Amino acid sequence: MDAKPILQLVGVRKTFGSFAAVDGIDLDIREGEFLTIVGPSGSGKTTLLRMLAGMEAPSEGVLSLRGVRINDTPSSERPTCLVFQSLALFPHMTVGANIEFPLKAKGVAAAARRERALALLDLVRLPRSYYGKNVMQCSGGERQRVAIARALAHDPEILFFDEPLSALDYKLRKVMEKELKDLHRASGKTFVYITHSLEEAMVMSDRIGVMQSGRLVQVGAPEEIYSRPATRFVSEFMGEVNVIEARRAGGVWRAEGIGELAITLPPELEAADAVAVVVRPEFLRFVEGTGDADNRLSGEVFNEYALGSRIQYQVRAGARTFLLELSRAKAWRGEPGAPAVIGWDARDAIVVPLA
Ligand code: ATP
């Protein structure tokens, strides 16, 4: 996608006293994209979103909408709308009245309001019969849809979402993730979404931005962030991993407690003498008999966890513990405590700077 930016951030910072919650962000948000900002608690996601939505002004830097500086433009004057986790629906009103609220404020006539509200119910996949239902009689997931329909009734160019699914149970969250993705496509709007949940980000987004201590450390397509994390922090944030610190001496890579390692270096690290080798649990495998792998270690399996369709094993090898994952269909048949040889190919490991 090479759409032009709808929102642009240049050197954006937000300080509270001497503390920088957002510490210099440059970012182009593309028109029509679904961009998700992920990061651990306290990394500055909400502060960033509050600036984008006009609820806080940046302390430094420039925020512009289609090339026009909007640093101090209040949220009511921006073509944007924010959907929260706590939905702020009007509890004493019907679903229809909630959705129509922004239209009423604009003076849209009753019949047209109703028609638009019904179309929005279709879009968020609620039955039209919900129009007259009180919102308090709706389930959590249904209320979430009403809130999104109401946000869309503003006809914003950009929708911001602040962890909107975090109060929902797992199953409903999974359904809503896919629906939000469909809704994004159907609405054609720009979505900017923040979450702690990597899974949510992976399922829905065109691009993911990863925040660490107020900075955006990597922005890219989900597959790129997953397969080619720029730093150890990003690789560790993107799921459980095995990280092996390795050092080169005399042309040979070695890791403490393991010994010699076969490593494929990315071009930008060709000159490095110390790196972190990240092996995702799904790229580690049991190497049977004559089976081959660039790196092989002998150890023993000492724990096994069922993760739904996958099984995770803890394997002690070379004075360290590795995580290895297999699909249930390919489960390892050995007994706990049994010796096992594990291995991985150099091309399946991700090599990142050590720091
Ligand atoms: P979470 O995922 O827990 O919501 P977050 O990534 O959204 O976290 P922010 O809420 O943006 O993080 O907070 C980033 C940092 O800025 C935190 O250390 C927080 O305590 C601090 N912070 C946020 N708002 C203020 C404020 N109004 N005054 C002082 N410090 C603040």
Automatic annotation (TrEMBL):
<comment type="similarity">
    <text>Belongs to the ABC transporter superfamily.</text>
</comment>
<keyword id="KW-0067">ATP-binding</keyword>
<dbReference type="InterPro" id="IPR003439">
    <property type="entry name" value="ABC_transporter-like_ATP-bd"/>
</dbReference>
<feature type="domain" description="ABC transporter">
    <location>
        <begin position="7"/>
        <end position="238"/>
    </location>
</feature>
<dbReference type="InterPro" id="IPR013611">
    <property type="entry name" value="Transp-assoc_OB_typ2"/>
</dbReference>
<dbReference type="Pfam" id="PF00005">
    <property type="entry name" value="ABC_tran"/>
</dbReference>
<keyword id="KW-0813">Transport</keyword>
<dbReference type="InterPro" id="IPR017871">
    <property type="entry name" value="ABC_transporter-like_CS"/>
</dbReference>
<dbReference type="Pfam" id="PF08402">
    <property type="entry name" value="TOBE_2"/>
</dbReference>
<dbReference type="GO" id="GO:0005524">
    <property type="term" value="F:ATP binding"/>
</dbReference>
<keyword id="KW-0547">Nucleotide-binding</keyword>
<dbReference type="InterPro" id="IPR027417">
    <property type="entry name" value="P-loop_NTPase"/>
</dbReference>
<dbReference type="InterPro" id="IPR050093">
    <property type="entry name" value="ABC_SmlMolc_Importer"/>
</dbReference>
<dbReference type="InterPro" id="IPR008995">
    <property type="entry name" value="Mo/tungstate-bd_C_term_dom"/>
</dbReference>
<dbReference type="InterPro" id="IPR003593">
    <property type="entry name" value="AAA+_ATPase"/>
</dbReference>
<protein>
    <submittedName>
        <fullName>ABC transporter ATP-binding protein</fullName>
    </submittedName>
</protein>
